Every structure is written in C-alpha cells, then in structure tokens.
Amino acid sequence: MTPLGQAHAIFRDLPVRPGSEALSTVHGFNRPGALRPGAQPLMNFILPSGERPVAMAALNYGKGKILGVATNALWRWSQSGAQGQHAYNALWRQAVRFLTGREDGGSLLKLSADRPGRYAPGSRATVGARVLDRTLKPLQGARLNASLRGMDGEVLEAVAFGELGPPGAYAAQVNLAREGAYRLQVSAEDEKGVLETRELLLEVGAGSGEGSRLALNLPYLEALARKTGGAVLPAPRAAELAEKIAAGVRTEVRREESSLIWDSPFFFLLYLGLMTAEWIARRRMNLI
Fold first, then answer.
1. Element (H, E) at 155
2. Where among 61, 79, 99 does a domain terminate?
3. Are residues 155 and 241 in the same domain?
4. pLDDT at residue 213, as a whole number
5. Which residues of 6-31 are buried (b: 16+ CB within 10 A; e: fewer)?
C-alpha cells in the first residue's frame, strides 16, 4: 500500500491490510498505463522483477469519484481464512461508501468537507461533523479533539470545532497552506469518554484534476460540427434533430431474388445427383 492508501477510507479499520500474510498474493493483474493527472495511487503490485505497477487508484472527476482496480482476482482474499474474508468484505463495503460520498461516516461521528476534489494551496476547508450520543440521538456539547496530520502521521496543527445551530452539528475551518495530502483526525467525546474517532482525507493541489470543467463548450462543439458536416442544437431545438438525421440519410432499396437450386452450382449438382440416384433405384426395382 502507498502512504496515501494507508490513510485512505477504503482501507480504514481493516482487520488485516493488503500486503499482510493473509492478503499478500494476487493471482493475475492488468498492467495499466500512466496515472491520469490528479489520480491517487492507493496500492501497488510488487513483481519479482522489482517493478511496482499501480494496483488500485482513485480519481475525483467533477462531482463524482472513480476507483480503478487493475485485477479481477481480489476475490481470492475471501478464501484465505476468516480474517481475509472479513477484510475483503470490508474493503468493498468501504469502496462503495467512498464512491458514493459516505466513506467518512461512522456510527456516532460523521465528517464531511465542503467540496469534493482538491483544494487550492492557501485556501480553507470547511469541515462539518455530526455527532450522536450512545443512544443515537444528536449530541449537544460534545468535545471534539481534532488535528491536521501529514500522510506520515506527523501532527501539523490543532483544529478547533465549534457548535452550529442544530444539535449535534459542528464545523471547523482548516488552513491548507501547501500542496499535498493531509489527514484530519477527529475524536468525539462525551462525559463517559471517547465515542468515536474518524479521519478525513484532504487534498491540496494547483488543479482540480480531470473532469473539473464539465460545462458545455459550445464554441468547440460548433467548430467540430462544421468540420464533420454535423450540427449543434440547443435543448429547445431538439425536435429538429430527427429531421436533420433523416435529411442526411440516403435510402436506396433494391430487390433481388435468387433460387437456391438454379443460382448455386453446388445445390444444382446435388439436386441432379439425387434425382439420378432415385431414377436408378426405381429402375432396378422395376418401378419404372
């Protein structure tokens, strides 16, 4: 696992980690190309030659997320004992939560950032927290101990959460000065002690990665249409699309008839041979 993968929500709280004895072998993989800009390598294969191709990577695309897995043999981990099966199930459960934006929620403490994707260097991230008590009701007056850490676990600064209006709702401003990946670790406590501890991954970079500009690029589409003889139609004129397609289609109908016997030498000779054989058989039996 990469340093980023070790802190990632997909691999959080697994009973055993990839690379341990139970999850050390992958039977077959696909060799991917270079990572797209903004992609996060989470796990690498280690080949006998010493190469370390990417096995799993994540990418924020617009408001969505993409997870790439370069093997279809992870299911064998579920056959490596109870711990391997538990880890395999947890891995995919947390992967689905990551892709749907629900990866940072525990049973009592849920964390959320104010935006998907990467932040610009020097910006602030607004992180929200929802805290429930031990009876699963919103907890007012909870103590939240938070720290911003590097990927190596080094504490960079303390982060203070304040209560919002609704019970159980808290928020904090996190300064993100430099480019890189950071772990925001938050522990929620009540009068009896720690309720739960969660981590939120925050990325800082100069760009937002692939898919950050998904708005309609009308000039580009019009130029492309002119080169290819097409047309660009806005939504109110969508009804014209069928007419333009029909106008550009030239229909030519031709009817051809053919006989299986007379137009095919093979079938003609076969037919002739059968008729001849029948005539000879009838002649020998004095039927004709």
1. strand 155-159
2. 99
3. no
4. 59
5. bbbbbbbebebebeeebbeebeebee
